[in-house]
Amino acid sequence: MRHHGEVKIAVVQTASSDDKAANREAVARLVGEAARDRPDLVVLPEAMMADFAVAGGSVGALAEALDGEFVGVLRKAAAEHGTAIVAGMFERSCDEDRPYNTLLAVGADGELLGAYRKIHLYDAFGYKESDQLTPGDVSPVVVEIGAHKFGLMTCYDLRFPELSRALVDAGAEVLVVPAAWVRGPLKEFHWSTFLTARAIENTCYVAAAAQNGKKYCGLSQIVDPQGVGVAAVGEDDGYATAELSADRLTEVRKRNPSLQNRRFTVTPR
Fold this sequence. Notes:
Layout: E1 6-13, H1 20-34, E2 41-43, H2 69-81, E3 84-91, E4 100-106, E5 112-117, E6 123-124, E7 127-128, E8 142-145, E9 148-152, H3 161-169, E10 174-179, H4 187-202, E11 205-210, E12 221-223, E13 229-232, E14 238-245, H5 246-255
Parallel strand pairs: 1-2, 2-3, 9-10, 10-11
Antiparallel strand pairs: 1-14, 3-4, 4-5, 6-7, 8-9, 11-12, 12-13
Helix pairs in contact: 1-2
Keywords: Hydrolase
Protein name: Putative amidohydrolase
InterPro entries: C-N_Hydrolase (IPR003010), C-N_Hydrolase_sf (IPR036526), UPF0012_CS (IPR001110)
């Protein structure tokens, strides 16, 4: 039994494909496997509904509404296993060729808690995500699961510390980071460094679930407010769990009151 103020999170690592039915089956199976450890939240990767198209391609035809089949599977799995779920999908927008890259949060009762549409699109390292997708509004999205607040951000958002700070200012105790972090020279180093930095500078937990395989680096992990890795998955499919403590968060923020000591106040444009 968990103590008051503790929350258990599972980060799941796998690779999606362009076969949406197979991805839905994988979601049901993976949530069921992670649920054996009785987590309060299961975090699945970015683009779990369907993988990105190749450069020059389109994911428009794959996109769904928030009451579509993919969300239906998330809601059913959450209610069946009694756990909240966060997962990535492509959501229809007003531009049928450029949907949103959306994180959906579902409560343990199967009800929708919130949706975050990726703000920073991956127009870097020779790729241009904005050719396929529409950016979301510049506004932090925080959802409550039990007595805890979780800030939602996606992959490339990690390179913009102002978003994580805005989420923490909005009350987030945990940054939830689904990703499909593309492999490449120094990219894995960047991934782990950013996750650790966002935890340390905001004195908060970070829970990151990444795609793996030939395209993406994997390395899903959970980092505590001092930058200590408390759970990790390597390169293979799997999941890792950790119990996050409100007492640990309070103790770290008392010892390192950097949020209180700020002199600059940054607000989103």
